[in-house]
Amino acid sequence: MGHGWEGVVLKLMRGKDFAFTVTGVEEVTDRFRRVHFTDGGMLAQTGVHPTMWVRVWFDNGDKPHQRAFTLVDPDPEAGAFSMEFALHEGRASAWARQARPGETVQATLQGTGFTAPSPAPERLFVVGDPASLPAINSLLGAIPEASATIWFETSHASDPDLPLRLDPARHELRRVPRQERGARLVAEVRSELPALLDDPAGAYLWIACDTATTRSLASYARKELGLAKDRVNALGYWRAA
């Protein structure tokens, strides 16, 4: 399967291609599946950083189709990692539903990156949803000494069973049902964050949900709360239909 013009652009941007092989699968919930892979030598070449992600290519007839996925528990020595799929309509979810050991997928490593906030934050504020769950867990694990408040948007009855890796002594989880295309999440963060933000210089805000919600909250944090650019990390993970 060719990668079309997207693959050409990624090559020009020094993207590196790898083949991943499925070694096992886990049904986390009825709408969330974890797939285990060997890495085709990637991690030995690239190393690992928090919230690391790759672009995975899926068959879509004669058109290339790629989606970004965060690595879960990457292990350079073993050459292995997992990826977690929120199951909905689409080629990536269709592939994940039928994935079996021995199958392979092509992937390109390009665009990933994470600059740890400096100085290290004393307080994390995280806004996300099932699509960004692996990255949330990676971020919390990378800054374990910081206390954190997490607003987590949910859409399905099984979402409370998703594997958020929380430390009850340091992490506070606030579940927010998805309503009005993310408007409720925006309203709750705007209502609650100012009272929690007692030391902006020691805080770090990380936002990863649908693109419109992410943009709205990032703009609010920078323009209305006055958070410095390097204390806000915002990336839209998906577009609402």
> What is the CATH T-level topology of the largest domain?
Rossmann fold
CATH superfamily of the largest domain: Nucleotide-binding domain of ferredoxin-NADP reductase (FNR) module
Would you tell me the overall average pLDDT? 91
Order the strands across the largest sheet as they lie in space.
4-3-7-1-2-6-5
Beta-strand content estimate: 25-35%
Which class of secondary structure composition applies to the elements?
alpha/beta
Q: Could you give the order of the helices and strands?
A: HEEHEEEEHEEHEEHEHE
Please describe the biggest sheet, giving its number of strands, its sense, and whether it closes into a barrel.
Answer: 7 strands, antiparallel
The CATH class name of the largest domain reads Alpha Beta
Gyration radius over CA: 18 Å
Number of helices: 6
